[in-house]
């Protein structure tokens, strides 16, 4: 039996427990709730003198169970990513902190994780990001070890970017567009936009009268008006092609799809998240250490 008490182990392991909770749930307030629930259980166990052979392992299991419960409740509620018309800031109370958490995981990766089932997300995050054995994951999910491996494998195929360099030049163009958008750099935008570029947007995403914009200057000027959205955007692959996703809190709200011709952006199509329900979305780069055949214990 470890000499360290459960509550002491909680404080020592808090950074790792937070990482598990946040990567599992993808939301700061949910991760905080998970840690609070875990601390209460740790305190109750200590008060009851319940023998715990490995406080660190026990706490990881408790946090994982709480996070899985959060994901399953969220799925049952079928909640939407954001209410229509919300300003895409990271957080009302602490935008900088929220931004740091999102970027620490990767905005595009969070979007993909949010499209997984709770069971797929749990299996992938716990095994591939935290090296939790599949036997432990199987117990958490009440499935067989083989089923836990299959869940992680399915998630891994969704998370891994396509193995292709076909659109490398297009990706560079889209990256330059996003960088200029974040900076409000009109000249930078004009450098990548074709003179006769056309930008179309779904009516629910932009003010009336701005669903179609023609010409590089006009598109650049309007893009600068939406610089706040660029701050919570990232490059992703949508159906294998480079695109920009708008994803405050890592939750997909919209995407910009590009047509590139003769080394310039000829058209931009802005669509809402519902339009992308049947599309395949992947990060442009896989998470560190990702392996498509990672199925061992």
From TrEMBL:
The keyword Transcription applies. Residues 14-77 form the RNA polymerase sigma-70 region domain. Residues 107-158 form the RNA polymerase sigma factor 70 region 4 type domain. GO terms for biological process: DNA-templated transcription initiation. The keyword Hydrolase does not apply. Interacts transiently with the RNA polymerase catalytic core formed by RpoA, RpoB, RpoC and RpoZ (2 alpha, 1 beta, 1 beta' and 1 omega subunit) to form the RNA polymerase holoenzyme that can initiate transcription. PANTHER family: ECF RNA POLYMERASE SIGMA FACTOR SIGI-RELATED, SIGMA 19 FACTOR. This is Putative RNA polymerase ECF-type sigma factor.
């Amino acid at each position: 039996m470890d000499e360290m008490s459960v509550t002491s182990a909680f404080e020592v392991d808090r950074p790792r427990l937070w990482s598990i909770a946040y990567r599992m749930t993808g939301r700061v307030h949910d991760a905080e709730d998970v840690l609070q629930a875990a601390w209460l259980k740790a305190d109750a166990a200590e008060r009851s003198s319940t023998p715990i052979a490995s406080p660190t392992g026990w706490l990881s299991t408790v946090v994982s169970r709480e996070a899985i419960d959060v994901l399953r409740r969220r799925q049952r509620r079928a909640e939407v990513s954001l209410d229509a018309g919300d300003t895409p800031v990271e957080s009302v109370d602490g935008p900088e902190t929220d931004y740091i958490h999102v970027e620490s995981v990767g905005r595009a990766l969070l979007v993909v994780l949010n499209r997984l089932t709770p069971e797929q997300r749990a299996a992938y995050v716990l095994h591939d990001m935290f090296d939790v054995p599949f036997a432990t994951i199987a117990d958490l999910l009440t499935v067989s070890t083989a089923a836990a491996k299959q869940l992680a494998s399915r998630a891994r195929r969704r998370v891994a970017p396509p193995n292709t360099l076909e659109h490398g030049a297009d990706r560079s163009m889209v990256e330059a567009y996003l960088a200029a958008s974040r900076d409000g750099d009109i000249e930078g935008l004009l450098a990548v936009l074709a003179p006769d570029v056309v930008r179309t947007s779904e009516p629910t995403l932009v003010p009336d009268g701005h669903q179609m914009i023609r010409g590089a200057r006009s598109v650049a000027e309007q893009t600068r008006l939406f610089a706040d959205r660029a701050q919570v955007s990232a490059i992703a692959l949508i159906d294998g092609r480079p695109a920009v996703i708008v994803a405050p809190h890592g939750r997909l709200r919209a995407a910009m799809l590009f047509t590139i011709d003769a080394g310039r952006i000829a058209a931009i199509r802005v669509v809402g998240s519902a339009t992308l329900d049947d599309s395949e979305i992947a990060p442009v780069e896989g998470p560190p250490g990702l392996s498509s055949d990672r199925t061992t214990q």
